[in-house]
Amino acid sequence: MNRDEMIGRIKDAGKHWDVIVIGGGATGIGVAIESASRGYRTLLLEQADLGQGTSSRSTKLIHGGVRYLQQGNIAFVLEALKERGILRQNAPHLVHNLPFVVPNYDWWEGPFYGIGLKIYDILSGKHGFGTSELLSKAETIEHLPTIETGGLRGGVIYYDGQFDDARLVINMAETAVEQGATIVNYMQVTSLVKAQGWICGVDALDLETQEMHELHAKVVINATGVFTDSVRRMDEPQAKPMIKPSQGVHIVLDKSFLPGDSAIMVPHTDDGRVLFAIPWHDRVIVGTTDTPVDTIELEPRPFADEIEFLLKHTARYLTKDPTRADVLSAFAGLRPLVAAPDEEETAALSRDHTLHISRSGLVTITGGKWTTYRKMAEDTVDQAAILAALETNPSVTKNLQIHGYHKNAEAFGELACYGSDAPAMLDLFRENKKYEELLHPKFNIRIGEVTWAARHEMARTVEDFLSRRTRALLLDASASIEAAPKVAEWMAKELGRNRTWEKEQVKKYQELAAGYVVV
Prior knowledge:
It contains 16 helices and 18 strands. It is an alpha+beta fold. The relative contact order is 0.15.
């Protein structure tokens, strides 16, 4: 997957697309996979990097949604559990089982949550990840060695899925390209092109070269998440907002706060949300908050009270109480919740997806969640194909393996998240002894991964690499700042950039990563 090659495709003067997708997050790339795999000529344009927004800032869970079960939204849970199983089947190198323990401190919690999670098991059916069980106090401590034991009665264990969201975005993009799609990052759609009142394409600005492109298609799909309404207003300036954004914040702690392989799930926090403490990449992620926001930004920042909320709740359940000084990184993401005029509380808004078609033919898909991206894409392309009078081709994505598919990727050790690409990466490392060196002593990241990302995964900036091709920014923001100059040096060699570019990249990254450091 090479950006220069992708640009070459869209410069083909005779090229007309069946489908143009705006938005390079999970939903948009899912739509591109769905469209291209049905044989439609597909172009996806992303204004920033792939997955730069909400899709790389999740709780890192592929799950049915225990919270939605509590709310009685059985249909949504059933769909999510089914999609969870499909995703583990198609991307086993990135999606795996994770045990969750609900600690019980009141007499009623064991039977109450035990029954609820048995229903969760039943709804999972053949897509189940494991059977839930009641745990004794001793068994709960065995799974969670640092759990607060005062008043602890026992727990309930159940199983859900965990993944690396940004890595999956990249592998999905590679899958779409393999199916025939053209995908370009740093290509901003500036306006919609209309003919006789009907949308027939887009104007797009290449942010690297400042070159404008007028691109034509039979149908345009808006899959821009929290930016949904800004694209809709390119079509209808007075369009009523569909999105009521909510900010979720996570903090990252050292593994010592929650050793072992089990996660903690707290079903009800002070703001009514579920709280998770999850082992991930040899760290612990704690989240999430739910704060209504009015401003939609590509780089949202955690609020101080959100960080304090997470620290306070974490301290309630762990023997080792974390402080601000213990936070390795804090990151925020905006949820594209579909507006509900009668609802005041953000936590009550639905995350089920909404499909909208405007009077001029703009197809908008929004809402939903990571786990159900494939079903959202299938529904979207079904409608878009009808609207564009495309040949009716059935969906094939239920059984379409995601790029990197490997059933035993753990055999590749530190490169396991690359799946079937790992052997080729090892071949690359043998080209230059420097490639095998660690980028930084606090990360299991090799210098050769910088070259790989720039050459094969459309990484264009230091941030692309440290935030999304690897997860250094989330794992330890301060250490990632220290690694930035070396990343810039090796990326410049691969992309043909000069020293001025290197210095500018390091400065930009330092400014960005400073927002992830808690002081």
